[in-house]
Amino acid sequence: MLLGTMSAGMTTRDMPAIRAAVITGLLLVTVYICTAAPSLTFWDASEFATAIGTLGIPHPPGTPLYVALGSTLWRLVPGLSPVQAGTLLSALATAGACAIAAALVARVSGRCALGVICGLCAGAMGTIWNNATETEVYAVSLFSVALQLALAWHAQASDDDRPRILLAYVAALSVPLHLSALVATPAAMLLANTDVQGRVRWPALVGSGALVLATVMLSKGELLVSLCCLGAAVFVGSPRGMRMTHVPGAAPWLRNASVLTLVAWSAVCIMLLRARLSPYLNQGDPDTLASLLHVMSRAQYDVAPLWPRRAPLWLQVGNIAQYADWQVALGAWNDVTPSLWRTPFTMLAVLLGAAGGVRHWRAHRISARVMLVLLVLSTLGVCVQLNLRAGPSYGIGVLAQGALHEARERDYFFALGFWCWGLWIGAGAWAVAQRVRRPVLFASLVPLLMILGNWTAVTRAPQPDRSLAMAIADELLHDVPPHGLLLTAGDNDSYPLWYRQAVDSVRPDVQIVVTSLLPANWYLRETALRAKLNVDTTVRATVQARAGQIAAQQIGRRGALAVSILLDADIRNAIGRAAGVTCWRRVGLVDIGLRSARCPPRVDMERSMASSQRLAPIRRPVARRSPDGMVAAFQRVASCPAAAVDVALTGRMPADSARRALLDIACNLR
Fold this sequence. Notes:
By secondary structure, the protein is mainly α. Among the domains are: about 160-300, no CATH class; about 470-665, no CATH class. It has helices spanning about 15-35, 45-55, 65-75, 80-110, 110-125, 125-130, 135-160, 160-170, 185-190, 200-220, 225-235, 240-245, 255-265, 270-275, 290-295, 315-325, 345-365, 365-385, 415-435, 440-460, 470-480, 495-500, 520-530, 545-555, 570-580, 605-620, 630-640, 640-650, 655-665; strands at about 485-490, 510-515, 560-565, 585, 590-595. α8 runs antiparallel to α9 and α18 (about 365-385) runs antiparallel to α19. The protein is globular. The termini are far apart. Mean pLDDT is about 90; it is low at about 1-10.
């Protein structure tokens, strides 16, 4: 894709392309496997691993094709756990995407080395590398993008309709895979509908646009509108449409493409079928057409409109610049802030990317134009469409005090843009290297330095990364009384627990209730069914009210009630009041709710000390610094049982402000 279709001839360029793909793919998959997480990680990865292990339905939009691919790989490769299969899928998909890019560069330029350098630079970008080392859907989405670009290149080079039809099919698979893959489709369609002289075939491009719009509208739950758009594409490609438009260059292939688009969409029915079997993981419960469309459109979330902006547009664009600073030398300064240790390398990468873009434009404007469109769509386009709040570490001191920020850093939304820039970095390194004596060796230093510069920052192989999420999950489940109900706060104290229960059969007697999901009626109904509770889903209520209702019934039938220490103390106490809890007893990483006229000591010293000893191995290693900061945060959580024991021994809260903040914020011991 990078240097376009400089030549339609394929026979003389096959071997350099094949060699470039094999070398790039093998090198990157080796790097990714060496730095991959061998077990659970935080955020969505543990949920996706649970879905793979149970053929379940993760959070909207459900990603059924991704789950099916991961589950198939798990069953085909002996000795892998579901989470390892998901991580292997990410590594293979990312390496495959970069291998495809390397092959295209080598094919059009005739230089294997150039293809390898470009592919390695793209694969070494920090966000791309992070996505490749855990169970994450964005890695497979990137492979879909690379496949679309390869099909578009072949269609443009050979003027063959068959790759155009396959391109439409792969693009439509974005609905059951992940809609982020559709970001690249307009650029791919532009290339596929450009002739060898660089002229755009507008009727075919308009028909292709109707296909893309149909897929977009389906992803928004607008089934009727999407079918109308599909019908428009069929009309443009039909003989009647050709006669009525009187426009040369119409596209009869659109009819077959429309049929395959419907076939691609049908993969979402996996969710419909699985939901009716009530799998362990059944987010959104899409067991009817209406609820299926509800899940596909992510209706349960607060999806932002284009206007008003959730943060000033200049601030949102600045957030992308912040994330761009995390791509090439994170090992020098692995933090959210710029640094003299890291940012100069970022600026050098910007200059190399600009040089690569200029060289690309001069070499072949057809593909350079497409690459530029792709870069704009995957950065500014995504920024405008998603309308994100400022990141958690960005806009402080600029936005009003108390302004809402994103719950986590969202650099992965812009991964495709960073991947594109990585390809141009490789091209820029090649262009600069032509001025020295050994250009291949000199240019190869750039991807090598990028890999070395990011390795220590992105690797998930050492402790505590390799086992922290699983250790926290086990500890949260360990101290819940038999057949107890555990209220959790959100993703990171819930998803790893789901995996341990559903896949590894650890403490299946514990009923986990995620308080952040309780506003969704489908989740409240599902929780009531599984916990054998009687709750009213027709009345709108706060999270505390719904959680309090569940907790009251659990205690009323003499069942045990436990609360994750990650649940805010004020919310915990409000739930306790609604349930008639008179005492909270700290045991390890949970608070046990009691109804007692005389409360026991606040901390169960013996069991908390045992919890501290079990968590000691993951507290000892020093957590790597990272923009995400989640590993370090959960290491602090792992120190809570020991800190609670210290409080119990002294009988008072510590005077040290840092220790006091740990107990109040991380441990919620108030």
